[in-house]
Structures are given as C-alpha cells and as structure tokens.
TrEMBL record:
It comes from Mesorhizobium wenxiniae. Gene3D superfamilies: alpha/beta hydrolase. One of its GO terms (molecular function) is hydrolase activity. The keyword Signal applies. Residues 1-21 form the signal peptide. The lineage of its organism: Bacteria, Pseudomonadati, Pseudomonadota, Alphaproteobacteria, Hyphomicrobiales. Keywords: Hydrolase, Signal. This is Alpha/beta hydrolase.
Length: 266
C-alpha cells in the first residue's frame, strides 16, 4: 500500500506548471528612517507619485512586536497603488501608553512632512492599527493628534472605553498591565475624545475574540452619533490574529477595507 503522504507528493509533482502557485513579485526593500523616538519603514515603488498612503501601527499588547510585523500588507498595498509605512513605537514597561500615543503622533508628523519624496500624497493618509495598534490609532486620531488624517482603520481591540471595559469585567491582565492607573482611563480611552465633532471616516473590524463585538459596536454607535462615516465589519469568522494576518490575501476583510479606502482616499 502506498503511503498517503507519498501519494500526495506524487500528485503534486504531476501537476502542470500552470496549476502551481505563481511566485509572488519581489517586494522592494523598505527605506528605514529615524523619526525621533523610534524608526519607521517606508515601502514605495520607484517612480510613483501622489499615491494614497497606509500608515500601519502593529499590535502586541503595548509591550511587544515591531514594525516588521506586516505579513503581506506592503506587497498587497503597493500592488494596489498605495504607499505603505510601518512604524515602531517605544514599548512597555519602558514607555507607558501615553508616551506611545505621543510616538505615534510624532511618526505621523514625520510621514506627512516627508512622504511626497517617496511617491505618497500627504493629504491622503489612512492610519491602520491592529490590537494595541488599533487603540493607539483611535486614541491619536480622535483626540486630534493626526491632523489632516484622511481615514482610520481600527482592527480588533476592546480598549475603546477603558472605564466600560473595567465595569464589564474585561480588564484582563494584558489590559491591566497597560492601564494600571484608573485615573488615566478616561484620557487614554478613544471614546472620551469622540465629543460632538465629526471625525475622519472610520473602519472598525472585530474578531470572534471575547468582547470585541460588543466594544466595537458601542464605539461605532458613538462615532455615528457625531455624523462620522463608520463602516463596521463583522469579522466573527476570524481569530484575533487571523483578522490581521489575512489582510491582503483576498479575503472578505481585505475586500471590505479596500472598498472603504478607495472611497475615503479617492
């Protein structure tokens, strides 16, 4: 009897070349810059000009991760006519969340001042974040720290309203370590900064991870009450990690984000 694994390998070897996966186009190496407290990478195609820009803020519970945690985002977005930027920011415990938010704002100012040199349009920047990065994108974007930002893409966090999170019993160890001082919860909550003014168009996605749907829906309703254009994406088919990792792989989330970005950035 032939081993099933051997049979599978034999079958794959007999596939015609056209049936095998096409190799991905090589991604240009990013150009790395020191924006002050940390570094950022700019991915751009040679000869491009006036392209919309996605600035990405990685997750990692405010204490882990780095700007290289981008999966296929750079390649996908460059192939679809965008510039892509991924930033580092200082991590817990050396830098608290308030400092991290200031880092994000400084990185954004650097990108807005310099991105035209690399083919990007400084007036068409969308800031995208996952997990902790989603919280930082929402906090800085809604408190006015990203002047001129064209859109926000917020991907799967519960940290929109920290006081509500604590009341619901959702202040898990990861959140408690990031936000140890209850007197700071309001100022570090994106929901606090919604106010009554209209904000940039905002895409909010949530996974099936605990509490994400309720927190995202409540935040979306709060934003909509100001007249802000909000797209709420039900990502309950995704885990907390796959809703970030799968972006750019032709999945439902990718298609929804791209529709949103094209409408928001033109």
């Amino acid at each position: 009897m032939i081993d099933r694994r051997i049979l599978l390998l034999m079958s794959m070897a007999l596939l015609p070349a056209s049936a095998s996966a096409a190799p991905r186009r090589l991604l240009p190496s990013p150009q790395t810059f020191d924006y002050g407290p940390a570094r950022l990478d700019i991915y751009a195609r040679a000869g491009a000009s006036s392209l919309p820009v996605v600035l990405f803020i990685h997750g990692g519970a405010w204490r882990a991760g780095n700007r290289t945690n981008v999966d296929v985002k750079p390649r996908f977005l460059l192939d679809n006519g965008f510039c892509f930027v991924s930033i580092d920011y200082r991590m817990l415990p050396k830098a608290d969340v308030a400092t991290q938010a200031n880092d994000v704002e400084q990185a954004y100012r650097y990108v807005r001042a310099n991105i035209a040199r690399y083919g990007g349009d400084p007036n068409r920047i969308a800031v995208m974040g996952h997990s902790a990065g989603s919280h930082l994108a929402a906090l800085t974007g809604l408190r006015g720290g990203l002047p001129g930002v064209a859109a926000l893409v917020l991907n799967d966090t519960r940290a929109y309203d920290l006081e509500a999170l604590a009341r619901s019993g959702g202040m898990t160890p990861a959140y408690a370590r990031a936000f140890p001082d209850p007197s700071q919860w309001r100022v570090l909550s994106p929901a606090t900064h919604v106010g009554s003014r209209k904000h940039p168009p905002t895409f909010i996605a949530y996974s099936r991870a605990s509490g994400r749907a309720a927190a995202s829906r409540a935040f979306a309703e709060r934003l909509r009450a100001t007249g802000t254009e909000v797209t709420l994406f039900d990502g309950s088919a995704y885990s907390h990690m796959s809703i970030n990792r799968d972006f750019g792989e032709g999945d439902t989330l990718t298609r929804a984000v791209m529709t949103f970005l094209k409408a928001a950035l033109g």
